[in-house]
Amino acid sequence: MSEKQIIGTSEAQIAVHWGEEEYYQPSPDFVGQANLTDSRIFERFSLENFPECYNEFAELLSWDKYWDQTLDTSDAPCFKWFVGGKLNASYNCIDRHLAENRNKTAIHFVPELEEERIEHITYQELYVRVNEMAALLRDFAGLKQGDRVTIHMPMSAELPVTMLACARLGVIHSVVFGGFSASACADRIVDSQSRVLLTMDAYYRNGKLLNHKVAADEACAIAEKNGQIVDKVLVWQRYPGRSASDAPMVDGRDVFVNEKLKDFYGVRVDPVSVNAEDPLFLMYTSGTTGKPKGCQHSTGGYLAYVAAMSKYVQDIHPEDVYWCMADIGWITGHSFIVYGPLALCASSVIYEGVPTYPDAGRSWRIAQELEVNIFHTAPTTIRALRKIGPDEPQKYNFNFKHMTTVGEPIEPEVWKWYYNIVGKGKAAIVDTWWQTETGGFLCSTMPGLTPMKPGSAGPGVPGIHPIIFDEVGTEILRGEGRAGNICIQNPWPGMFQTIWGDRERFVETYFARYCKNKESKDWRDWPYLTGDAAMEAEDGYYRILGRIDDVITVSGHRLGTKEIESAAMVVSEVAEAAVVPVAHDIKGKEPDLYIALKPGVEATEELAQKISDTICSEIGKIAKPRKVWIVPDMPKTRSGKIMRRVLGAISNKNDVGDVMTLANPDVVDTIKTMVEK
What we know:
Elements: E1 14-15, H1 28-33, H2 41-44, H3 55-58, E2 69-72, E3 80-83, E4 86-87, H4 89-93, H5 98-101, E5 105-110, E6 119-122, H6 123-140, E7 148-153, H7 158-169, E8 172-177, H8 182-192, E9 196-200, E10 202-205, E11 208-211, H9 213-225, E12 232-236, E13 254-256, H10 257-260, E14 274-275, E15 279-284, E16 294-298, H11 300-312, E17 321-324, H12 331-343, E18 347-351, H13 362-370, E19 374-377, H14 379-388, E20 402-405, H15 412-422, E21 428-431, E22 466-469, E23 482-488, E24 498-499, H16 503-510, E25 528-536, E26 542-547, E27 552-554, E28 557-559, H17 561-568, E29 574-584, E30 588-597, H18 605-618, E31 627-630, H19 644-651, H20 666-676
Parallel strand pairs: 5-18, 7-8, 7-9, 8-15, 9-12, 12-13, 17-18, 17-19, 19-20, 20-21, 30-31
Antiparallel strand pairs: 1-23, 2-3, 4-14, 5-6, 10-11, 15-16, 16-24, 22-23, 23-25, 25-26, 27-28, 29-30
């Protein structure tokens, strides 16, 4: 059957039209130094050896008491890992490294302003700072094990210090992305019943010093209206000793952390030994489809899983300088800036600002200066760097042994630029697929074992056994050329325990659809529903097509938006592409395609037609866009994510909602004017 033929699909199946890409092999030099080159790991982590296989991951940590039971399914699907075990996350990320590595750099903090010096924090200094902060939280803020705190902070060295101080006490932290609004922060304060908020007075973004303290004041006011009073607001200063915000400090509530810490200089706090299943943190989903969900992650299972993923997928060695460009306010930052790398005694880079400020070379200058050899970022950032400086990486002397892409599927054309230009044809790439809820990777190539294939995440990582279902629970088999709902057959230690305060929503959202027996205590009856669409190729590699909710049904045929976007990116002039569905009386939906061009490329009707024709030739006429809109820029969040919701509202002539929290709100009116003509 031709891949251009239209394939009839059911509700949960998506026709797949794109061809498979060629393999890229990791270099002998990389394989020679890789942490994992033993292919027997897949056998060790087979379903036949489940769940005891995961003891191998747990043994990467230091335990106060070993576990009695690897997996407890008595409250399925709220699975409990390493039951009876006791440990402390802060100890595992700091204390245990001091004997041999106290003078090794733990964190390189890079301010956005290039004229400001990079801060290099050793493991010994991190130990001192975390202890003093833990003492402040305990003795001044009155926090104890099991309490929740909300942390609304930008990228800074003080953010992991605060998180690890909470972990030292067994206090559950809920970090809110610094770019989120006061209202979003308030929602999380109320849901977690936090009475302490930690923030920072200001931070830099695109060269501007933003007043962040005002968001704390507004968040507290909103939270109080909704029944949750914040007793203390602890404010870190961007410039210690002086306030960078003109927002007033509220008497009796607000205190500058930098000043109060003086009362606790030299204090040491013994790490609280917590149960493996005690919560380490809450991470809220963005709430684009309703009330944000507080994903509750455990201490032992989560930390064991991210340590293993950092070692075997990220290939982190203690001597590596590792830079994950994500924000710590997202799960990627929790897992692969803070807890995973520090558990392995790596040096982790934290960058305050945007990767393209003041120019396209900033990221590569940082990599050069710090001798970064592992680079981890999202396709959004890769596309942005490719757009404004396609040849920029070649100007700098850096050498990555390993690169990660995370957060969304990466188009093959963008992958190849990442490999050839950024990785200089040498670096191993892992195209990882996972979610906030999963804690760590679900699918990826293993960089020292399996070849890379652009556009494909790879097989399930050791211990993860995906399965693809149609809407009635029939398995879609490997190599069928169809996509469906990708699920995970088995639980794993990194997965979240429940939704904070809402077990029913947890079960209904993630497990109910394909559960075989809701009274069952057998993990086999509880496949995890990811909500993503995917297909499995003949070679066992998975191609993730995006959220099931993003699939566009055209005349009864379900098309993945990511496939259409990838086809558009084949056109050399295209830098970014975003597809949104538009209502149609006959067809049901049609795709609208928004395009941002590379610098210096002129927007013409001829180019728009070329893009449309390319999609028809790559996929078929069924995927032809209703309209190709060439726009000056995409509406983006401050983390760089394209806001397809806004574009969809414009195309469908609906209200775009509040856009003032976007990084570039002015572009929305420009696009609206263009579309409404």
